[in-house]
Structures are given as structure tokens and as C-alpha cells.
Design brief:
The complex is a heterodimer of chains A (148) and B (168).
Chain A: H1 2-15, H2 19-23, H3 28-32, H4 50-64, H5 69-80, H6 95-124, H7 134-147
Chain B: H1 2-19, H2 22-27, E1 38-41, E2 46-48, E3 57-62, H3 67-82, E4 88-94, H4 98-107, E5 113-117, H5 120-124, E6 132-136, E7 142-147, H6 152-163
Parallel strand pairs in B: 3-4, 4-5
Antiparallel strand pairs in B: 1-2, 1-5, 3-6, 6-7
Classes of the chains: A mainly alpha (148), B alpha/beta (168).
Chain lengths: 148, 168
């Protein structure tokens, strides 16, 4: 009886998908680029501090346990606060970090466009050179012919 | 223009925040009221600094990966026993993996209050590294700041006005 039960348990364990195959479709090295070292404020993949090394080890461990990328990020945010994320979340006050660069770009383009337009108008408004006197034109033609 | 004003405003706010941290104020010779915080305890539940009202508090910021913190841990454990009921010792675990912090506490037998900070208290108190220790008097004012590793004699000396003639 016990042997049968043990076999059944073993069978279930073998047939059931492992946690790692369930949801680990993300790359630990990619995730390292999305997190910051809380002590040296460098990107995790570029940091070798003691806490960064522990975080890298935990990323691998949680990846192998089948946690999703978001679950891993959430765990680190719980430990270190939202500053651990390399990119701020796109909501609340942090939304400014996403909007300000775009606004600066659009504002800069508008200013550059306005200046270019004003410059073009100023150039367009300049009077053409006065027409050449016909006698002078004939003389120039003659001299050019003679030169050739 | 709005964006420029916003950026200048943020920069100014950063400067003001830095100048008004607890450590900056203590460095200026002031004794600011200790800003209250409520954090998760490493052993479960919540802890509020305000609950220590009427007793001096040794507030120590630490992390499990920090080497000087390993040297300080036995000193803090010893003092927490020596002045039990007279002085509260509170360890604020910062910039750390929580499971590592619990393991550290167990290894060094830290049975005083230990809380985990996600960074807000660390910034508000104006820390620049770990470990750092503050002494809060019974009236709730921050009277001393010890950046870096602290010795037992330094702490004992600082505690003297509050504990009188307690001997080991």
C-alpha cells in the first residue's frame, strides 16, 4: 500500500510541470538592466556591490522557482522602494519623468520651427537685385565672347 | 517655460530637502524633533518610533552586507540588555534583502526592535552610508549623530545623562 502511494506521488511529481517551466519566460540578465543597485545607484548589471550581488543571486533563484518578471520586480520594490526600478512607473508623480523629456522635445522642435519660419520670411522679404542695364548686359556678353 | 519652472522648482526642492534632513540639522548644532516613522518589524507586526516616548532611543541604521554592522551588532545587543526598560534600541534595516536581515539578526542574537526601511526613512534622516546611529533623548529630540561604526564606550558616554549610574 505504502509502495503504491509512493509511486503515485512520484508519478504526479514527474508529470506535473515544474514551476520553472510554468512562467519563466523572461531573462534574468534583461531584468538586471531594469533594476538599480540601491547602494551605489548604478544599474544592477553594471554594479558589483555586495547588495547587487545578492540581488543578482535572488533574481536567478526566483527565475528558477518560476516567478514572473513582475513578481520579482514587486518583491524588490517591497524591499528597496520604487527607486530600485531603473525606469520610474508611468503613473502618479513619476509620470513626469516620462512626460517632461517629450514636452522638452516638442517645445524645442516648436521653437526651432518658429525660428526657421521667421528666418525664411525675412529672407523672402528681401528685395531682388535691380535689373541690369541692357547696354551693360550687351557689353558683358561681348567681353565674355572675346574672352572665350 | 512651464517645464523650465518645473525643473528649477524640483532642483530647489532637492536642495531644501537635503538641508532639512535630521543629520544636516544635528550637524548644525540643532536638536530637531525626531520625525516619526512606522515600519514593518522584521519579526512581524509594525513599529512606530512615537511609541518610545519618554525613553531615550538608540536608532541604528544597518544592513546585513555591511561589515562594520557586524562589529556593532554585539555592542547593540549588549546595551539593549544592559539598559532594558531604560533605553530603547531600534535597528533600522536599510538597503537590504529582508531574508538576509532576518538571518543576520538570528546569527548575532539581536532581540531588540528591528524594522525594515525601503529607503524613505534613510533619506529623510539624511544618511550617506551604513552604519549610522542617532541618539534620541526622552523628549523625542535627536541629540547625537554618529556616522560610521560606533564603539560601546561612545554610546555609553552619550547615554550617561539619561541612564545615570547604571553599571554592568
Amino acid at each position: 500500500m505504502r509502495g503504491g502511494l509512493a509511486l503515485a506521488v512520484l508519478g504526479v511529481a514527474l508529470l506535473a510541470p515544474s514551476p520553472a517551466s510554468a512562467d519563466a519566460t523572461w531573462s534574468p540578465s534583461d531584468l538586471q538592466t531594469q533594476l538599480m543597485c540601491p547602494t551605489c545607484h548604478q544599474r544592477l548589471d553594471q554594479s558589483d556591490s555586495a547588495v547587487a550581488q545578492r540581488m543578482k543571486a535572488l533574481i536567478l533563484q526566483w527565475h528558477d522557482q518560476g516567478l514572473s518578471e513582475q513578481q520579482v520586480k514587486d518583491r524588490f520594490v517591497t524591499m528597496f522602494g520604487p527607486e530600485v526600478l531603473a525606469a520610474p512607473p508611468p503613473h502618479g508623480f513619476d509620470l513626469l519623468a516620462w512626460l517632461v523629456p517629450g514636452l522638452v522635445l516638442v517645445g524645442g522642435a516648436a521653437v526651432a520651427g518658429g525660428l526657421a519660419l521667421a528666418w525664411a520670411r525675412r529672407r523672402g522679404g528681401e528685395p531682388d537685385a535691380p535689373p541690369l542695364d541692357p547696354a551693360m548686359e550687351r557689353r558683358i556678353d561681348a567681353e565674355l565672347d572675346a574672352f572665350e | 517655460m512651464t517645464v523650465l519652472v518645473l525643473l528649477v522648482g524640483l532642483f530647489a526642492k532637492g536642495l531644501i530637502d537635503n538641508a532639512t534632513t535630521v543629520s544636516a540639522l544635528v550637524a548644525d548644532g540643532k536638536h530637531p524633533a525626531a520625525p516619526n516613522f512606522t515600519l514593518d518589524r522584521l519579526d512581524g507586526g509594525r513599529y512606530s518610533l512615537a511609541s518610545a516616548e519618554g525613553r531615550p532611543v538608540i536608532l541604528n541604521f544597518w544592513a546585513s552586507w555591511c561589515s562594520p554592522c557586524k562589529d556593532e551588532a554585539p555592542i547593540l545587543a549588549l546595551l539593549s540588555h544592559k539598559y532594558a526598560g531604560k533605553v530603547d534600541v531600534v535597528g533600522v534595516n536599510s538597503q537590504d534583502v529582508t531574508s538576509d536581515a532576518r538571518e543576520f539578526a538570528q546569527r548575532y542574537g539581536l532581540d531588540f526592535t528591528l524594522v525594515h526601511d525601503t529607503g524613505s526613512v534613510y533619506r529623510h534622516w539624511g544618511l550617506t552610508g551604513l552604519p549610522e546611529t542617532f541618539l534620541i533623548d526622552p523628549r523625542g529630540r535627536v541629540v547625537r549623530h554618529f556616522p560610521g561604526e560606533i564603539s560601546a564606550s561612545e554610546l555609553e558616554q552619550a547615554l550617561k545623562p539619561y541612564v545615570g549610574g547604571v553599571t554592568s
